[in-house]
Amino acid sequence: MKKALSGLRAWLVQRVTAVYMLLFCIIALLRLAAGRPHSYDEWRAWLAAPLTRTAIALFFAALLLHAWVGLRDVMMDYVQPLALRVALLALLAFALGGMALWVARILLLAPA
Ligand code: HEM
């Protein structure tokens, strides 16, 4: 029962993050098609706007969560030897954690 619930939650997280990522990509493309920034300063101003920056931060949070839940499920299903499974999961967590820090560094340190 507990496993079924956690499976359901993973399923939900996978879909909610996928929907957000798809909407983000569509809206970002429409916005750029409607009028893209023409200079470096315009790009910086656009990316520094609180709404844009928040939407980008949420996009990467969704992407990393989505990748973690999806790839973790694939490993749980297909990697049977326990030691190998644990090693691969640790490697994945390390890689995604590193990417999260990298994104946070870019978003927090980028000049406003
Ligand atoms: C814009 C980016 C992305 C979008 C819109 C997206 C969308 C989706 C969608 C719609 C599903 C199917 C959900 C379902 O019905 O089961 C899915 C599943 C999945 N995604 Fe993504 N995804 C994106 C990026 C990624 C990335 C970067 C990774 C990993 C590196 C990833 C890994 C997976 C995995 C492992 C599954 C589950 C496959 C399965 O269970 O058969 N996705 N994604």
CATH architecture: Up-down Bundle
Outline: elongated
Q: What does the radius of gyration come to?
A: 18 Å
Mean pLDDT: 92
Derived structural class: mainly alpha
H-E order: HHHH
Which class in CATH terms? Mainly Alpha
Give the arrangement of secondary structure elements.
Layout: H1 2-34, H2 40-48, H3 50-78, H4 82-109
Protoporphyrin IX containing FE (HEM) binds at residues 14-15, 18, 21-22, 25, 63, 66-67, 70-71, 73-74.
Account of the protein in words:
The chain has helices at residues 2-34, 40-48, 50-78, 82-109. With 112 residues, the chain is an all-alpha fold. The chain has a single domain, classed as Up-down Bundle (3 helical TM bundles of succinate and fumarate reductases). α1 (2-34) runs antiparallel to α3 (50-78). It is elongated, with a radius of gyration of 18 Å. The model has no long low-confidence stretch (mean pLDDT 92). Residues 14-15, 18, 21-22, 25, 63, 66-67, 70-71, 73-74 line the site of protoporphyrin IX containing FE (HEM).
